[in-house]
Write a structure and sequence with these properties.
This protein is mainly alpha-helical and about 130 residues long. The protein has a single domain, classed as Up-down Bundle (Four Helix Bundle (Hemerythrin (Met), subunit A)), CATH 1.20.120.1620. It is built from 6 helices and no strands. Helix 2 packs across helix 6. It is globular and about 50 Å long.
Length: about 130
């Protein structure tokens, strides 16, 4: 199961190094939005998944945050959505917490897209 969750993080995209030479402004905004969504997925798994995967998801979220150009208010807004999503009750034919499904739904959901679109980047001087 841990291998499947790790694959999920990798397949979520956006955590690979950016190409050398920089990106055009529009592409950078899209990349930054993807990074913020990837951060949301990582934080959701970090808060909801069992150890040791939760720790890996948390350090992955920290690495993604370091690549981002958003202010802390963007991450706080997304973190609030993560908490709301994890608080939802999911049920199915097999008993479980459905953390992974909740996090996937968050990643692909309109509420996260809306929050991400409202955020403004604050590029660091090193970039």
């Amino acid at each position: 199961m841990i291998a499947i969750m790790a694959l999920l993080l990798v397949s979520a995209g956006g955590v690979a190094p950016e190409p050398a030479g920089g990106l055009v402004a529009t592409a950078n905004v899209v990349t930054q939005r993807n990074l913020l969504k990837d951060w949301a997925l990582s934080r959701c798994l970090a808060r909801g998944a069992p150890q040791p995967f939760a720790k890996d998801a948390a350090v992955s979220a920290a690495a993604i945050l370091e690549r981002g150009d958003y202010g802390m208010e963007a991450y706080e807004a997304v973190e609030a959505l993560v908490g709301k999503q994890l608080g939802k009750r999911y049920a199915g034919s097999v008993p479980g917490n459905y953390v992974t499904l909740k996090c996937i739904d968050l990643y692909h959901g309109a509420p996260l897209d809306a929050v991400v679109r409202r955020q403004k980047t604050t590029p660091s001087p090193q970039r």
